[in-house]
Amino acid sequence: ESGGGKVMLSSSKADFMEVILNIESGDVHAAMEEYVVVQVEDYVGGKQRDQAVEKSVWFEEFPPVLMLQLQRVSYDKDLQAAVKLNAKFNFPREIFMDRYLEKHRTEALEGRQQVAEMRACCRDIEKKLDVRTNSDGPRQDIALHEYLDGTIRFLQKMSTGTDPLSRHPKAPPAPLMNDFCKAAQEMYTMAVEEKSSLEAQLADKRQKIEDSLPHLKRVGYQLFAVLVHDGQAGSGHYWVYIWDQAGRWIKFSDSRVTEVGEAEVWDQSVGGKSNTSAYCLMYTRIATSKTLPDAKFVPEALRTEITGDNLRLKEEIKRWDVDKMYERFCCDFDKAMKDAEQSTDSSIFSFERFLYQAGIRVLLEHVVASKLDDTVLHGFKNLDNHMQTKILTKTNQSMVVEDEELRRLQKLRYTHRVYLAVCEAWLQARVDLKQGMLKQGLNGLCKAVLTQHAHASDLRQHHAFDGDLINSVGTALEEAVRTIDHTCITSFQLNGTSMALFAHFRALCACGDDVAAKVAPARALWRQAAEKALGEAWASPLGIRLSIDEMIRMEQTGFPNPISHDVPLVAAEPVPADGVEDAIARVRRL
User: Phi and psi at residue 94, in whole multiples of 5°?
Assistant: First the structure.
């Protein structure tokens, strides 16, 4: 300023620039006005040293997406370090930027004095409100009415004798406590009413500021993203709130994405209470809020930089995805191997457990890795050489095996299906016998033994032959024989229980000397019962004429299964290849 007028010292024009707002201004409009026109106090230049210099920045056009940076970090000269500024900074859901356009400079400056007076009034109201919302107690983030509410609750417990302190010898009497409680309730009501009144006054003044230039409300913006930081200047946690097209605030915090209420957005963003505050506001132009930004607002040099950053980001995301995929592969691989070794609930009777018991670790690793190839890697062959090498190292080179090993694997899968058939028949027989279903239980037990005997060589070779099954046969048959009533002649008829046992003896004795030896005690008991019943049969009106010699002859020559002519006593078929998972589930339930 010189001689009552203003002299232009210099001017420049920028196609693109950041808008960094001073949060000490208190709100967006105050900060923008300070950003647009500001007095330069430490200017040195020219012939006169006492001249006042004013710096102004006016906008010719605003972009479709408006980003306002908030100056939340400052350098503390005393501490000689950067510090976080958590001062309260208000911002609206909707804002009009016409008053900061170059073409409206004159009108905006003329109305600034009136706006300054209203803003000073807002600051006075805010100070009064801060007294009520930020108390002098040990917790400054607790408002006065919240302290009073807690006091009322305490006094109510004291007056009713439900608080332990009410039984203290020096505790005031209940009537006095009631008086205290009434007084606190009156103060609580006054505090709430005063707070509500101040908030209403503040909202009214802010709206008047927004409406101070009613004819300058064409370039409108709507808040759609708030970037928040919690922590100190050099560390902390970042997240963002985004207003989606469904009309919801969505919080993106690392890998957690959650819907939140609007109250949380303002509580965590405005600042003034803790180390949590917004550091960047993003608005979209109301008329174009659903369109992509026009590239003309981004200078060519910056577009090139952004494109490069985006490409690097894509590569970084790709590397991150691959690294995470490898981490998941290693974690799942180790867990599957551990499950197979320890026979957990998720691995018992599985093919992996079968391979571990057989001692074939190479094929076990191959099977586990192949499953993870489908669910995690989604194609080992599609990975780059570096990642393939890491996978092969992790699996001890068993991700890929020779054709001969693959043929061996197919044979092992068949043996595993046989093993499942044995387990299912045996376990189901145990259930039937426990429930008193003698014929069904014996039939299943016999089927399990016959199946195991038919594939004994393969099962023994791979440690899947169960000797306990053979031991259980003799015990079960002995218990069954003891249930025979020798006075009931029908038990020794062709379809009777005794004859069913006779058929099982014959089938089981054909499974080798080891099985025959286990069956022998039960068979001897059966002969005793048969001889006793035979002695009584001579006087029976049924006229049954069976002799031990005849039974032995029948045993030698064979006869159909007396339980059912449709279900012969033969080995079970292996579980179908496409029914392994269902069979494992059935066996686990048994």
Answer: -130, 135
